[in-house]
Amino acid sequence: MNSIKASEQIRRSNYISRDLSWLRFNYRVLDLARKPDTSLFDRLKFLAITASNLDEFFMIRVGSLYNYIDYGKERIDYSGLRELPFRKKLMDLAHRFVGDQCQTYEEIRPEFEKHGFNICKVEDLTEGEQHKAASYFKNTVFPLLTPMVYDSYHGFPLMMNQLLIFGVVTRTSEEAKPQNRITFVQIPGNLTRFFEISRKNKIIFVPIEEIIRWNIHKLFRNVEIESVNLFRITRNGDFTLEESDDMDQDFVHEVKQKLKNRKKGRVVRLEVEHAPSQYMMKLLKERWNIDNGNVFSIDRLLDLKSLWQIIKHPHFANKIQRPPAPVPSPTLPPGAMDNIFEYLKEHDVLLHHPYNSIEPIVTLLEKAAEDPYVLGIKQTIYRLAENSRVTAALLKAAENGKHVSALFEVKARFDEERNIKEGEKLEQAGCFVIYGISKYKTHTKMMMIIRKEGEKVTRYVHIGSGNYNEQTSRMYTDISLLTTDEVYAHDVSEFFNVITGHSYPENYEYLITAPKDMRQQLIELIRQEKVNAENGLPSGIVIKINSLEDKEVIDEFYAASQAGVQIRLIVRGICCLRPGREGLSENIQVSSIVGEYLEHARLFYFHNNGNPLVLGGSADIMVRSFERRIEALFYIVHEDLKRQTINILRFNLMDNQNSYIMREDGSYIKRQPAEGEEIFNMHREFYNLGSEITQEVCLF
Fold first, then answer.
1. Which of these is catalytic: 313, 352, 443, 607?
2. Fewest 10 Å CB contacts: which of 101, 217, 460, 585?
C-alpha cells in the first residue's frame, strides 16, 4: 500500500490510531522544550522527557508491533492498516519527530554558555583539561572497556539495550587478502555520561564517548582503524506474563526471568551517528533483520536522557523552575493533622495533588504504624519512591505487631525489580505480601487502616488516582479521597477480599471496578445522558483521563453526540476518538493539557438531569483498563467534595495556556486566548483557589 492510499485509509477511519496519536502527544511535550519563555533547564528537562518517552514507545509499542510482524500474525490498526503498511507510516512519523527533536536541541545549544556550562569535545579543552580527561580515561574508563571482535572465529556479541556502543572497523593485512573486521566496544552503563571539568564560573561537560573516541587507538595497538561509529540499539521490551493461578514465588521468579530476556529482545531501532560506515551498517541490518525504517541517523548528542545529569547538577539547583509550596486543602484545615483520626471520623477530605500535599496520606500511614489502637493496614502498591516512607511505615507497623497486607504489583513496567525487592523486605518483617493477581495488573490505589476505638472498629480509607510516591506526587496531578464513611469502607473491604481471596461480591455501592463491570457501567452512564437528551432533558459529559482507546466506549460517545449530548473530553495522551466529524461526533470536543505537571488524575462527570454524578479513580478508557487490570473508580458523594471536583474539571476547560485542541483529522493546535479573554493558566490558578470559588461551580 503506497503512502497516499495509507493516508486516505487513515483519514476515512472513524478512529485514530493509538500509536500515531501517541507520537502527536510526544510532540506536545516537545513543544514545551521549544517555549522561549521557559527557563533553559526546564526546556532541557522536557527534551529529556521526550527522549525517555520515545525509548519506552519503541520498546513497548513498536516491540508489540514486531511481535505480530515477526510471527506472521494479523494486526489491523484502528486506522484500518495492516502490519507492514502501518509500520511504514509509523516509522515515517517517528523519523520526522526525531528530526524535530534534533532541531530543538540545536536551537537550545547556543544558550548553554549564557547559563554557566557547555558540552564540549576533548579537542575543545585546554591542554591541562585534556590531561585531566586522559587521566580519567586511563584510571577509570580503560579498565572497564572490553573490545568484542566479530569474525569467523568469534561469535556475534550480545549488545545491551540502550547502551552507547562503538563499532570500530579495522583493516588487517595478516591474511593473504586484506579484509575488514569489526569490533564492538560497549560503554558501561555505570559510567556517568559526562566527565565534568570546572572552569572558573563554568562547568564543562565532556561526553564519555568523546573521551573514549579520543583514546580508542589504545584498544587497537598496531591495527589500522578504518572508522569509529557510535550507535545505540533499542530492543523489544514487550512481554506478556503467562497466566497462572499460583502467583507466589514461582510468579516472582517468572518475572525475574522475563526481565533477563529483555536483554535479548529483537532490535526495533538503531540510532547511529551521522555518516556511519556502510560496512558496519550492512552487517548490523542483516544481523538484526532491520531496514532503513528502523535506522535513525542522529547528528547531535545520542540519548538525550543523559541531559538529566546536567539538569540535576547541584550547581544549577536554583535554576530549574520549582513548583510553589502546596496549599492547604479546603477540606483539611490547619491543625487537623494533629489528631487526624478524630478529624476523619467527622469529615471526608479531598486532596488535589500537587496543589495539596501528599503529606496527610503519608502522615496518616506513619501514625497508624505507631498507634496502639490500630489493628491492621491493607494497601495496594504500584510505584514507590526511592527510600520510601510508605514502605518504612509498613515495616514499622509489622514490627509493632499489626497485621499488614500489601499487594506489590510486580508488573508495574520498569519498576518490577524495585517492587520485588521492597515486597521481599516486607515479607521478611512478617507482612502478608501478594505479588499480583493472576493475569491482571493491579493498578488501583487503595489503603485501609483498621482501628479499634472502644467497642467499635473504624476503617480509615484512602482511594485515589496517584501512586503512593512522595517524589512523583510533587510533579503529577492526582486526586485523593480520605474517608471513614461506612459505605466506602464496606466497598473497599470487599474489594481487598477480592484481591487477597476468592470473594466475588454482587455489586458495590460507591465503587465501579474492573475487570468486573467498569466498561458496562460507564456505557450505561453515557447511555442515560443520551436518553436525557432525546427526552429534552439537560445532559452533558465531561471526562478527564490520560488515554481514550476503547472502541465500545468510543462508539457510545458517538451515539450520545448524535443524540445531542454535549461531550467535553480532556485527554492528556492517546485519543483514538475522532471529534467534530459531521454526522458522527459534532458535539464532541477534545482537548489535551500538557504543562508543568504530568496530568494523571481521572475524573468523570455526568450531568444526570442537573443532579451530577461524579467519579474519580485510577482507570483510563482503555481495553487494558477494563479487561487486563484491577481498577476502581469511586463516586464522590459529599456535596462539598463534589463541587471541588467539578471545579477541577471547570479549570481544565478554562485553561488557555497549556491546552491543545484536537482537530477532526487527529492533529492538535495550541489553544490561544480569544479576543477579550483573560489569560488562564490552571497550573497557577489552583494555587490561588479559595473555597468560595467552588460554591456555585457549574459545567452545563
1. 443
2. 217
